[in-house]
Amino acid sequence: MPPAIPAPGRPSPHARFVVPVLAFCGMVVAVMQTLVVPLLPHVPALTGASPGAAGWLVTITLLTGAVFTPVLGRVGDMYGKRRLLLASLGVLTLGSVLCAVSSHIGVLIAGRALQGAALAVIPLGISIIRDELPADRVLPSIALMSSTLGIGAAIGLPVAALVMENFDWHTMFWASAALGLIDLLLVLWIVPESPVRSPGRFDLPGTLGLAGFLVGLLLAITQGADWGWTSGRTLGLLGASVALGLIWSRYELRTRSPMVDLRVSARPAVLLTNVAALLIGFAFYANSLVTGQMVQEPTSTGYGLGASIVVSGLCLLPGGLAMVALSPVSARISAAYGPRTALALAAVVMAVGYVVRFFTSHSLWLIVAGATVVSSGTAIAYSALPALVMRAVPVGETAAANGLNTLMRSVGQACCSAVVAAVLAHLTFTADGRTAPTLHAYLLIFLIAAGAALAALVATLFLPSDRPRDRAAGGATVTVSTSVTAARESA
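User: That's the sequence. What structure does it adopt?
Assistant: C-alpha cells below.
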C-alpha cells in the first residue's frame, strides 16, 4: 500500500470544539442502535407486523452497520473523512424521518437500515481526531470518541423508555431526526476536512464480496435461533459465507488497492486487537441485553423484581455516566502504561463485574452496581482499542482499520444476542401460568460473559508489549500530527 498523501488543509477557527462535536455525533449514532429495544414487544400491536418482522428493526441496523462501517471508513481515508461523516449523518437523519412519518413495518425497517449505516461516524471521528489534534490530546480524545459507542447504548434505553411512557412512539424518531440535523450543522460549522488521504481506486468487487460475506454470516448468527441452528437455511448461509469469505480474501490479497488490507490486518498487533474487540463487544452487550429483562421479570418467578420498563432502562444509566467519567481515566492509563495494559485492566474489571452480578441477582441496587462495574470496564476497553489499532496501522488506513475494529465489536454483540436468546429460550419454567427464564439461565449468561472478558484478557496478553514510544502518544500519533502540520504550512 503506498503511503498516505496529505492534502491541503487549514486550521479550524473552532478547533477546541472539534472533539465535543465529534463525541456528540458518536453518542447520537450509538443511541440509535438501542433506541427501539423497549419498543420491540409493542411493535406487533402498533404496526400489525409479526414478532419476527418486528425483530428486524434491530437486526437490520446490525447488518447495515457491519457492512457500511469498514466500507465508509476506507472511502473516508481515500476521499475525505469529513465528507463521509456528513454523508453518514445525512443518512441517519433521513432514516429517522422515515421512521417518524410511518407505522408500516417495511418503511420502519428501511429507516432503521439507514440509521444503522451511520455507525461509521465513530471510526471516521476517531480518524479525524488523529489527523487534526496535537499529539498530547489524541489519546484522551479518541478515548472519549470510542466510548460513545457504549455511552449512547446505555443512555438510549432509558430515554426510549421514558418517551414511550409519556409520548407517542413516533416522537423518539422525530427527536432522532432533530439530533441528526443538529449534528450535520455542527460538523459543517466546526469540523475541518482532514488533510490526510490514502491513494488508490475504490475496490468495488472487494466491497461487494465483504458485504455478501458479512450479511450471510450475521444473518445466520442472528436468525439461527428462530430458523434452527441445524436447519438448511442456517447451515447454507454459514457455508456460503465461509466460501465467499475465502474467495474474497484471495481477491483482496491480490488487488493493488484492497477494501481491507489483509496483510496489515493479519499482523499480530492488529489481529489480536480485533479478536479482543469481538470478545469485549460480546461481554459488554450481555450486560445491556439481560439487565432490563431480568428486573422486569414478575416477582412470581422468585427472582424478578417486577420493575417497570422505565426503571429497567434507568438501571443502565449509572453505567453510561461511569463511561463518560472513565474515558479520560482510560486515556491517562494508556499514556502512562500503554493501551495494552489498559485493555488488560478493562477485561479484568468486566469479569469482576459479572462475578458481582452472579452473586447479587435479587437486589435492585446491587444489580445496578454490578452493571455499572461492567460498564466501567467497557469504558476503559473501548478507549484503549483505537489506540492499539492506531499504533499498528499506517496513517492512511486509520478510518478503515478503526472501522474494522468497530465491526468486530458489532459481530461480538451479534454473537452475544444469539447466545443470550438461546439460553433464555431453553432454560425456562412456568410461573403464574406464564413461561419465564429460570434464574440459572441469567446466571449462566453472566458466567459466559465473564468467560468472554477473560478470553479478551488472554488475547490482550499476547499483544506486543507496550513500548516507551507508544506511551508517549499512542504510537505513530506524533508522526501523524507533524505530517499534517507540515502539509498545512506548505499549503
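The chain has a mean pLDDT of 82.
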